[in-house]
Design goal:
Elements lengths: L1 E9 L4 E8 L5 E5 L17 E8 L2 E3 L1 E5 L2 E5 L6 E8 L8 E3 L3 E4 L1 H4 L2 E2 L7 E5 L7 E3 L4 E2 L2 E4 L2 H5 L3 E4 L2 E7 L2 E8 L7 H20 L8 E9 L4 E4 L3 E7 L13 H15 L8 E2 L16 H4 L1 H13 L5 H16 L9 H6 L12 H4 L5 H17 L4 H12 L3 E2 L1 H12 L4 H8 L7 H7 L2 E5 L4 H5 L1 E6 L2 E7 L4 H5 L6 E5 L2 E2 L3 H6 L7 E7 L2 E7 L8 E5 L5 H12 L3
Parallel strand pairs: 1-12, 18-19, 19-21, 22-23
Antiparallel strand pairs: 1-2, 2-8, 3-7, 3-11, 4-5, 4-8, 6-7, 9-10, 10-16, 12-15, 13-16, 14-15, 17-18, 20-21, 24-31, 25-26, 26-27, 27-28, 27-29, 29-30
Helix pairs in contact: 3-4, 4-6, 6-10, 7-10, 10-14, 11-12
């Protein structure tokens, strides 16, 4: 058994102390720290936060030779236990790494636990040592008190740990214990509502996958870090780490459904759905993870995109949001993709493969070069679901459950997806996959939604849409954040980082100034600043499409309403 001990060494210096004890080490024992964390596809170089690394066998100092950016070799003598100790700097207040101050601690195992090469499949024991007075421990890792045990290294690092003083609540979903931890909440948190709403989500998803059977875990834990302004989550096999704005949490005496709280429930739904779709049903390439390098797959459009489709849809099905709000959320995804010129450049399969260098490293040209496998992937799921339902042979729900049955809740590849789609549709769906997943064709969502009684309309284009740019207003200045391919701003010669100075001889400080001066109604002289140089340009006249709105068509007949309800409520 490999034994780890983690102590809070210095909260003010944001330092964890870690010790790993290896019985009977190899003569040249290799240890390494992962370079990335599964679920977040970017090499993050966690070893850069390691310091004070040293090793002993009994009283003898063992030489540690660093062989690359994140691995070391311990030259051992005999079979006596090797004890390796080190410090980890923890000051990333996100769901991906580790954080420590005087108020709170949090860590993912990939950020703090050295992997003992050749011993990864052995049981791994964790002891949480010194903690500030009054701090608690929360994790889904099996154990009691401050002692925990994992079957192997993969399980150890797939269970984040929350430390500190926090709110704690519990509920059962289909007889399975669920715990909810909230750190950093303001006074007045409506914890009972948060638990009740989360319970509805969990029960709906367990039923989606298993009917009346129990899920493939004995206990589940939500770890939510409430902060001033951040949002995100990271899935794990029996828990999830979440971060959200404090003001989006439900408050006592505020019974309505705010947009912020609906967004939080969507995040909870998304990460919980991952318990099946990516943590168990997973890309075949992820069956055996390599922690030292990128792990490529073309299937994130399915595992992230289809999860993004079901997260809000299941909120509708369990009654937490109404039809109108759900259609607004679908329209938001549509507008996100339609406002991305990169959708005509890169397929969602390519975007999945390139996640390591593009999705997590956005720049001023990202909008022109790639498309989100989350948002377009969710629209591919919508298009497939409506196509299957319109043809009367089944639904995407049947496909998801069919894939679970086919794989035994394990690894799959695109051939499996295609085969189950064909089984449900009664025909090959190769043409749809080629066009929508591996191609850059527009998705036929307008006609499909119309068959389900959803009316598609366009709002008048905003000035920014007509300009073809993303603009920031700050300190009385207009700065271009991104310039869309083929838009009026690009035609004028503008670039990201330029400041708009004057239009038709008038100083401009706000978007309203551009509108008042008739920008884009006709060609006008424009002054811009780039790197302290004043540029004399001409802003052309331009037209553009506006945002899409989706509403249930009140004129729908009974059969169309029944189809829409079958889709939105999960029948048929």
């Amino acid at each position: 058994m490999i034994r780890y001990r983690l102590d809070v060494a210095d909260p003010h210096a944001h330092q964890f102390s870690v010790t790993v004890t290896i019985a009977a080490p190899a003569a040249d024992q290799v240890l390494s720290l992962p370079a990335w964390i599964p679920g977040s596809y970017l090499v993050r170089e966690f070893a850069r936060h390691v310091s004070h690394l040293q090793a002993r066998q009994g009283e003898r100092i063992v030489v540690l030779v660093q062989r690359d950016k994140a691995s070391w070799v311990a030259h051992c003598q005999g079979r006596g236990a090797l004890v390796v100790s080190y410090r980890v700097h923890a000051f990333d207040n996100s769901v991906r790494t580790a954080y420590l101050d005087a108020e709170r601690g949090f860590f993912n195992g990939t950020s703090v636990f050295l992997r003992v090469h050749g011993r990864e499949r052995e049981p791994q024991r964790l002891a949480i040592g010194r903690l500030p007075r009054g701090w608690q421990i929360a994790t889904a890792l099996p154990g009691e008190g401050a002692q925990f045990e994992a079957r192997d290294y993969d399980e150890l690092v797939d269970h984040p740990v929350e430390l500190g003083r926090f709110w704690r609540g519990a509920f059962k979903a289909r007889g399975v214990a669920h715990e909810f931890i909230v750190a950093g909440a303001l006074p007045g948190l409506d914890g009972e509502r948060l638990l009740a709403d989360s319970q509805r989500i969990c029960e709906a998803q367990i039923a989606f996958w298993h009917g009346r059977k129990k899920p493939p875990f004995a206990r589940y834990v939500f770890l939510l870090n409430a902060v001033e302004d951040s949002y995100g989550g990271l899935e794990h096999r029996a828990c999830t780490a979440l971060i959200a704005r404090r003001r989006d949490l439900p408050r006592q005496g505020s019974p309505g459904m705010s947009d912020g709280y609906a967004t939080l429930l969507g995040l909870i739904s998304h990460e919980y759905f991952h318990t099946w779709n990516v943590k168990r049903l997973k890309p075949r390439e992820f069956e055996h993870v390599d922690y030292a390098r990128e792990n490529y797959t073309e299937l994130l459009w399915f595992f992230e995109g289809f999860t993004s489709y079901y997260d809000d849809l299941l909120l509708r099905r369990c009654g937490l949001i109404d039809e109108a709000r759900y259609l607004r959320l679908v329209a938001k995804s549509l507008n996100n993709v339609l406002g991305t010129p990169g959708r005509a450049v890169q397929s969602v399969a390519q975007a999945s493969f390139d996640a390591w260098v593009k999705y997590y490293r956005p720049d001023e040209n990202t909008v022109n070069a790639t498309v989100s496998y989350y948002t377009k992937g969710s629209l591919v799921a919508l298009a497939l679901d409506l196509t299957l339902r319109a043809e009367g042979r089944g639904s995407l729900d049947d496909v998801m459950r069919g894939l679970w049955a086919r794989s035994g809740g394990g690894p799959i590849d695109e051939a499996d997806i295609a085969a189950v789609l064909a089984d449900v549709a009664g025909r090959s769906c190769a043409s749809e996959l080629a066009a929508w997943v591996h191609g850059t064709d527009e998705l036929p969502l307008g006609p499909l939604l119309e068959r389900f009684g959803v009316a598609w309309s366009e709002e008048p284009a905003t000035l920014a849409q007509r300009l073809g740019a993303r603009i920031g207003e700050a300190a009385g200045a207009l700065e271009l954040k991104a310039v869309m391919r083929g838009g009026a701003a690009e035609q004028a010669g503008l670039a990201a980082g330029d400041e708009l100075l004057a239009l038709d001889g008038w100083r401009v400080r706000r978007l309203d100034d551009l509108a008042a001066l008739g920008a884009l109604e006709r060609a006008l002289p424009l002054l811009a600043v780039r790197d302290q140089r004043v540029l004399s340009l001409t802003l052309p006249a331009a037209r553009a499409s506006g945002a899409v709105t989706l509403v249930a068509d009140a004129r729908s007949d009974a059969a169309t309403r029944a189809r829409r309800n079958g889709w939105l409520l999960g029948a048929g």
